[in-house]
Amino acid sequence: MLNKKHIKYFNKILPKDFVFSEPGDCWAYGYDNSKMHVMPECVLFANHKSQIKNIVKYCFENNIPITTRGRGTGNTGGSVPIENSIVLSLEKMNKIIKIDTSNRLSIVEPGVINTVLQENLKKQNFFWGPDPSSQDYSTIGGNIANNSAGPRAIKYGTPRDNILGLEFISGKGEIHKTGVKTSKGVVGLDLTRLFTGSEGVLGILTEATLKILPLNNSVKTIEITFERVENASETIISLMTQPITPYKLEFVDNESIKLINTIKKNHYEENCNSAILLEIDGEEEYIDTMLENIIKVIKKNKYKEITVANCNLDIENLWSARKSLSPALREIGGYKINEDIVVPISNLTILLKNLNKISEKYSIKIVNFGHAGNGNIHVNLLFKSDKEKKSDNSKKCLKEIFDLVLSLDGTLSGEHGIGIIKKEFINKEIDKGTLSLMNDIKKQFDPKNILNPNKSI
Ligand SMILES: Cc1cc2nc3c(=O)[nH]c(=O)nc-3n(C[C@H](O)[C@H](O)[C@H](O)COP(=O)(O)OP(=O)(O)OC[C@H]3O[C@@H](n4cnc5c(N)ncnc54)[C@H](O)[C@@H]3O)c2cc1C
């Protein structure tokens, strides 16, 4: 329990209304999209790094755990506080400090919402690569901590590929700077990449220098349907083997198609058992030739229909089918396990075939869809009740899925991270010695283990 002395101190060093200690105020800061909830002892806000420095120094001296929070959209409990912890919300630290198009960089504070940054960049015909579907709500700090990305990661990468440098405060309350403001640089160890995706366990991000890119002025959207799931995965492989890198390449399986058809009345035709939504981007004068070449590649595979969007309404219609999946899953009920595994795309066919077999073996409905161009598939296990979800049958099924993914040279999480809820599985993928090396590294950044303790590694 935090005592009154601590709350008094925080009230002294922070501006008015930057400290919440009433349970009614704190409640909303105790959960994220994992649906876990733990009540924070108090919630602090900061809008300047000097405030964060003072908070961390005090917490270091008094052994108070800190859970850093962006906007709480994470899926694995990363911003859910552990017992007796304070939450540090960076939502008020939301300035875009600089947009420098000639050097292709933008400097931002961590609380900037992804879409707000993209809108500002768009005015200058630029963008930042990472586009998680939560971009209207999630922060750049959260995106960097979770290495979050969306459909265009296939061409434009994840935060790890799109950051030049960072500034962060360690668990001792010291400010550190990593990286460069140039497009090349090889001085010192690459702490920028180490920090990115570290889920808030190494430090509190206070500033990021992002690599930005000019927008292409033309995009083509194509939907391809298939009778068999393996025809879709084979088409994905041939699309990734030719020179035009797709801008977005999304996949839905037969169970997803059934679900979409219930919401978007018969969007997909009869006997359609999987589909791909593909986009390419480029300069207007070349885009039609690119489209012709892409269609030639698709036609070398077995397919049912190819639909090219001719106008914005067509594009919206094709995307709204793909986007209706998450709400459809939510409507079915809350009893689901949502994994986000990744395999090399050459193993997609074998992954999907075996997921079907596992689904039959355990009598659990599995719905698969996702960012297929990265081999990143959202595997959704659906249950009729909470009891079924927590049963031994479901645990065995999940274990077999993870074993399958690892046997195919895959990884257990492409974008959600480990947080709290996946922690029990991390040693399936990372061996004991390497995990212990990672924990030794954390000790250098956070010697008293006050930053997001017991999460991720
Ligand atoms: C509808 C929906 C769609 C989603 N779609 C995607 C998607 O397409 N792709 C994807 O990758 N994810 C997706 N997510 C997951 C989530 O949005 C991302 O993980 C996002 O980056 C989290 O951002 P946030 O600001 O909400 O961070 P939070 O959830 O608040 O925090 C996430 C983690 O980052 C840490 N953190 C936050 N700020 C800092 C900081 N300044 N310094 C250090 N650590 C920090 C937290 O401690 C926590 O561990 C989705 C979530 C929802 C609800």
Main CATH class of the largest domain: Alpha Beta
Strand content: 15-25%
Bound molecules: flavin-adenine dinucleotide
Oligomer: single chain
User: Roughly what is the average pLDDT, rounded to an integer?
Assistant: 95
Let me know the largest β-sheet. Answer: 7 strands, antiparallel
Question: What's the CATH superfamily of the largest domain, by name?
Answer: FAD-linked oxidases, C-terminal domain
Under the CATH scheme, the architecture of the largest domain is 3-Layer(aba) Sandwich
The CATH topology of the largest domain is Vanillyl-alcohol Oxidase, Chain A, domain 3
Structural domains: how many: 3
Structural class: alpha+beta
Molecular shape:
globular
- The largest beta-sheet arranges its strands as 15-12-14-13-17-18-16
Helical content, roughly? Answer: 25-40%
Distance between the termini: 25 Å
Runs in which pLDDT lies below 50 for 5 or more consecutive residues are none
Please tally the helical runs, counting DSSP H or I stretches of 4 or more residues: 17
Task: From the alpha carbons, calculate the radius of gyration and give it in angstroms.
Answer: 23 Å
